[in-house]
Amino acid sequence: GQQVMQIPQYQHVQEGEDFTTYCNSSTTLSNIQWYKQRPGGHPVFLIQLVKSGEVKKQKRLTFQFGEAKKNSSLHITATQTTDVGTYFCAGARGNTPLVFGKGTRLSVIA
Amino acid sequence: DTEVTQTPKHLVMGMTNKKSLKCEQHMGHRAMYWYKQKAKKPPELMFVYSYEKLSINESVPSRFSPECPNSSLLNLHLHALQPEDSALYLCASSQDEARLASTDTQYFGPGTRLTVL
Q1: Residues A82-108: pLDDT tens digits?
Q2: Which of A30, A42, A92 sits opposite B90 (nearest CB)?
Q3: Which of A25, A70, B71, B83 is deepest in the core (most CB within 10 A)?
Q4: Do A97 and B56 touch (CB under 8 A)?
Q5: A87 touches B: beta carbon within 8 Å
Q6: A30: nearest Cα among B106, B49, B31, B101
Q7: Is the link from the previous residue into B8 a cis peptide, with omega within 30 of 0?
Q8: Using 50, 70 and 90 to split pLDDT, how confident is the model at A40?
Q9: B42, B98, B100 ranked by CB distance to A88: nearest
Q10: Is the peptide bond before B42 cis (omega within 30 degrees of 0)?
Q11: Sheet holding A71-76, edge to edge
C-alpha cells in the first residue's frame, strides 16, 4: 500500500537555527498536507500543496512539493521556542484517506 | 465555529467496562474520522464516516464500535478493551464535498486520552 516516509525522526536545534523535515512517498500523490502537533496537543493543519513544484510560505515556514509529486519538505527559518512540536506530513491519492508520515519531533534549545 | 470537541478528555476503564467517546462539530462537515494515536507515533486511521454512513473501517477489532447518530455527532463505543488499546483517540472532520476527496483539510479535536487497566 501507499507509504509516506518522513525524516529525520528527531531534530534538536539551537534557537535561531534553521530546520527542515522531508517527506517521501512511494507513489505519486494528488496532494500533501502538513500538520503540527504541540506536546500534549492535537494535530493542527498548516498547509496543503497540490501542484507539481509548488512552493508556499507562511512567515518563517516554507513548504515545497516536488516536481514528481512524490516528495515534500518543510523548512523553518530562524527557529523559535514556539516552533517546538512534531511536524507530520500526510499524503493522499485520489479519494483514498490521508496517510501520515511518522513525524519529525523538533526541539528548540533557547 | 471551526472547532471539533471531544468528551471526555481523559478516561480510565477496566477491561470489562463499556464506555463511549463522543465527538461533535458544527462546521457542516460531512466526513468524520476516528484516529488512534500512540505516544510518539502518527495518528492511525480507524474509521471514516461520509454523509453519516460508515465508508472506511481499517480492520479495527470489533471491541471498537463507531456510531454516527447525525451529521454533527460521532461516537466510539468501547467494550472489553485490552491494555494495549490505551492511547489518544482523535476525532477529525472535513468538508467532504466530493465524497472523501483527499484534498479536504481535516480538523482534529483535542482527543480523549484513554487508559485501559
Answers
A1: 999 999 999 988 777 889 999 999 999
A2: A42
A3: A25
A4: yes
A5: no
A6: B101
A7: yes
A8: very high
A9: B42
A10: no
A11: A4-7, A19-25, A71-76, A61-65, A55-58
